[in-house]
Amino acid sequence: MEERGIDRSWNYQTDSSDERGKDFNRLSQLVSTQISKISQNVATIQRMVAQLGTTQDSEHLRQNLHEIQHFTHTLSQTTMESLKNLSSLPSPSNASEQRQWKLQRERLTNDFSVVLNNFQAVQRSAAQKEKVSVLRARVDSGIGGVSFLFCENPFNENASELTANVVPQEKLQIEQNLDIQTIQEREQVIRQLESDIMDVNQIFKDLALMVHQQGEVIDSIEANVDNAQVHIDQGSTQIQRAAQYQSKARKKKMLCCSVIIVLIIVISLIIYFTTGGEKVAIKLCESGCGVW
């Protein structure tokens, strides 16, 4: 009876040890796969960020960039949870297996720390480029000058056709609304990047705490934890000022163009009716457009 009890106890311990070994191998493989995917995504993000502000830049590129950044951010959090589960497994009784598990956890933790650091670096780079893009949005979306439209058709037989070339006030308002919408969308992207960067900082802190609790030391983890932020409040103030400046500048430009057009028409008509020189009037109109 005693021998059967001993055998049953030994079999239970063996089965339990085997199950822990299977769990460890499964979680190790899962964490390794997740780290590899994060590394691949970071490389893709780096290539996409390098295209921002170039001729290859587009709204489609930015949308894809934001999606892969968000996915990688979520995957980083999931990987941290998997690594915690791996570290929480009871250590095996065999000294050789204990050392093997310890080395495997250290390797995975180091690898995860490296890809996290790279991910955070490319996040900061993307956030900086987005800030520059927002501040330049009013220039990129600016409408063409009225004088250009006028000079394409320097003189018409009646004043109504000339004034028809002036950009309507309604169109100006539409352009301004589009600019504001674009600025707000880009600002929201910056806020999301700021939040993601802070989340990665928290993952670094959790990683350092987990290692400390295990009594293991991983270099550079604490050094990677910082309080870097994208100062969106200051950027928002600059954006609002830029939008206000743009609105005032366009109104002044519209007023100046209208005054110049009216003056050219009046002077041309006066010269035409007083001298009878139609060619002189046309020449004066063309000269006015060239100066403008």
TrEMBL record:
UniProt GO molecular function: SNAP receptor activity; SNARE binding
Claim: DNA-binding is one of the keywords in the record: no
Protein family per UniProt: Belongs to the syntaxin family.
Any GO BP: neurotransmitter transport
The protein's name: Syntaxin-12
PROSITE patterns linked: SYNTAXIN, T_SNARE
Membrane-topology annotation of the record: Single-pass type IV membrane protein
Chief location bin: membrane
Record field: transmembrane: 254-274
GO cellular component: SNARE complex; synaptic vesicle
Domain T-SNARE coiled-coil homology residue range list: 180-242
Disordered: region residues: 1-21
Keywords: Membrane, Neurotransmitter transport, Transmembrane, Transmembrane helix, Transport
Subcellular location: Membrane
PANTHER family linked: LD23667P, SYNTAXIN
